[in-house]
Design a protein that fits this description.
The structure is a single chain. This protein is an alpha/beta fold and 337 residues long. Helices cover 28% and strands 26% of the residues. The chain has 8 helices and 19 strands. Strand 16 (292-296) and strand 17 form a beta hairpin. The longest helix has 18 residues, at 309-326. The radius of gyration is 20 Å and the shape is globular.
Length: 337
């Protein structure tokens, strides 16, 4: 990192986009004493936001299996910020399991990641009694956590208001319309200025059953993709993991069969679960699948969070604030327009 000339540290701040990236920017800037206005083109339900369809996993150690080191670095920093700002965030860890036929992939996952403990069958049963007898061993990542996006995003909005920020829903503005420091967190809608952005579809299925209880996300090593089962409140579970290079919406029959079949492989009781919802979101990604903070004097853009929105958003907001306050630059993330 190095020091660089930055906008005035006491300037008013306008943020465009109230999804997870914009919400964290607004919260940290408001807490730092800025006059913050957060603009969101949709209504308070945020159903048009990518965040509405996210898994909410805070798993930087697991992501190291496929992601660049910067994801782990920023993600681990984000865990600290989540704990500080929302101390009721569940940090029960995450569990990675596999059946015998995926043994080599399971061992590869273990080699590519760190921060885990190996559990035998009794350890798995002790941690998750519903999985008793289902798996002979597992990898337990105790430092990881998860949030329920549709519950935690309103909490962040409440924190922004409590810190003195203003949120304007149904406010469709552009950076050129606004004075002072402007931070663009529009995701794919920012392609008018960043045409290299693309959408990567992530599909999810929400199911309900009282026959299975889980305290933490469970990843199943899978030949095509690792399914994750994320527990939510009221006996709900989210099934997800697809990353499809397409920008249509909805869930394909192939994906639904894969996700539901893999869930059944985690526990047969999922076969009797009630399907509550199918859905998908388009994750904004640059060609390298890495996040980027672009700086053009007092106009900035935070984008390209790809599959890691809830994991990376707090750390990226901290970096943006450090630039505005002290001119501090993170060379792996920031670039000039």
């Amino acid at each position: 990192m190095y020091q660089n000339k930055s906008p005035r540290g006491d300037s008013p701040v306008s943020i465009i986009g109230a999804g997870i990236a914009g919400a964290w920017q607004a919260l940290l800037f408001a807490q730092a004493g800025h006059a913050v206005t957060l603009h969101e083109r949709s209504d308070a339900a945020m159903t048009e936001s990518t965040s509405h369809w996210a898994g909410g996993m805070l798993a930087p150690y697991c992501e190291a299996e496929v992601a660049e080191p910067i994801i782990s670095r920023l993600g681990q920093r984000s865990l600290d910020i989540w704990r500080r700002e929302l101390p009721d965030t569940p940090f029960n860890g995450s569990l990675v399991v596999a059946h015998a036929r995926e043994r080599s992939d399971f061992e590869r996952f273990a080699r590519m990641t760190e921060g885990h403990q190996r559990l035998d069958a009794s350890g798995v049963a002790q941690l998750e009694p519903s999985l008793d007898g289902r798996f002979r061993d597992a990898l337990f990542f105790p430092a990881e956590g998860h949030v329920e996006p549709r519950r935690v995003l309103p909490k962040l909005h409440e924190r922004i208001l409590a810190a003195g920020g203003i949120i304007k829903f149904n406010s469709d503005v552009s950076a050129e319309d606004l004075e002072g420091i402007v931070i663009d967190c529009r995701g794919l809608s920012a392609r008018d200025g960043q045409p290299e952005l693309r959408g990567v579809k992530g599909e999810m299925i929400l199911i309900e059953t009282a026959e299975v209880e889980l305290s933490r996300p469970v990843r199943l090593i899978h030949p095509r993709w690792p399914l994750y089962v994320i527990p939510r409140e009221d006996h709900l579970f989210m099934l997800g993991a697809t990353s499809i290079e397409a920008e249509d919406t909805g869930v394909s029959v192939r994906s639904a069969l894969e996700l539901l079949g893999a869930a059944y492989a985690v526990h047969p009781a999922f076969a009797e679960a009630r399907i509550v919802e199918f859905g998908s979101g388009l994750r904004p990604a640059f060609p390298d699948n890495l996040p980027r903070i672009t700086i053009d004097r007092n106009k900035m853009s935070v984008n390209g969070l790809y599959r890691h929105g809830f994991l990376l958003a707090p750390a990226l907001a901290e970096l943006t604030l450090a630039y505005v306050k002290r001119g501090q630059i993170d060379n792996e993330v920031m670039r000039c327009a």
